[in-house]
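QUALITY CONTROL LOG
STEP: pairwise intake check
CHECKER ROLE: data steward
CRITERIA: each record must contain a sequence immediately followed by its structure tokens, with no blank fields

ENTRY 1 OF 2
RESULT FIELD BELOW
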Amino acid sequence: MKSLITLTAVLAAMLSVSAAANALPLDTSVKPAVTSLSNPAPKTGLYVGNSFTYYNCGLVGYVRGFAKAAGIPWRARQITISSGRLSYHPMAQYLAPHELDPYAKGKVKDGKLTAPMFDVVFIQALSTEPIDAKSIPTWKKYLKSEVAEVKAAGSEPVVVVTWAKKDHPEDTKKLADSIISAANENGAAALPVGLAFAEAHAGRPDINFYAPDKRHPSAAGSYLYGAVAYSFLFHRSPEGLKFLGGCDKPLSEADAAYLQSVAWKTVRAFYGW
């Protein structure tokens, strides 16, 4: 009996060590309050943001590519404004029906929606808004109002945690803590894209995640953004999917596999899945 107890204790210790070794020390001190979508099978989405979201043919193309490779029905609209702050976006208007709008088809009666046009709405702010002292009050004000408008429309809000500039990696934690805290305050999910950037760079510093301006994403950065969004949306790993990227900038199979793995590990660690 003593031997059995000892063996059990040893195995438990080994599992504990293994789990610790595989855990990602994500660069944030704030845990997300919302850890999954209430809709387990979202089919439509809206991406609202700026150039961080539209670079390299856009997040819309990357998530669509992953979903198509997985055989998941998904369609989405992307609305972005160059250098756009949250205050530039008329969110309520984006979520209202317009003439001949395919996302409103069959969902309008007497000029009003009878069902949400989008299951999920991603909100991506100007990258400096959440950590610039002068911008924070306005950013918080509009994040609160836009999340409320998304919820009022029957959609689920997801606030994008953006990445630090290439030459300011110390901002990764500042951005994550600020954005996750604000998302929590408004009952919205946070998407840990910036944390995935930091993890991916730490493991493969040979991959360039930035455009020459050291701010916007390279094709690899946009691919990782899409992989993180896909992982959260559908609560499944993108690993093994035969999708190498959108536009004319496909990745190598090895790089794509690595980014798929980082995206899934980051999402699981962040949400506690």
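ENTRY 2 OF 2
RESULT FIELD BELOW
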Amino acid sequence: MANPDKETLEKWHKDPNNWKWGMFYYNPKDPRGMVPKKIEWMGWTINFANRKAVLLFFGFLLFFAFVFYLITSKK
């Protein structure tokens, strides 16, 4: 499904089967990489079923780990 309608997106968001441990969104049918968190006012999270979003997430983690390493290794 390339462009799901708003009703379908809302149904997916409310489906507890799409939330692993209540906080990780995992829905292979949803093409979006970023989705509102379960409690929407808390911001956004990634769709862990979207490969590009997961790669971007781990890329950011590696970048920040590298920056942290550079900062702490200076003596």
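INTAKE CHECK: passed for both entries
DESCRIPTIVE NOTE, ENTRY 2: The helical segments are 6-14, 51-73.
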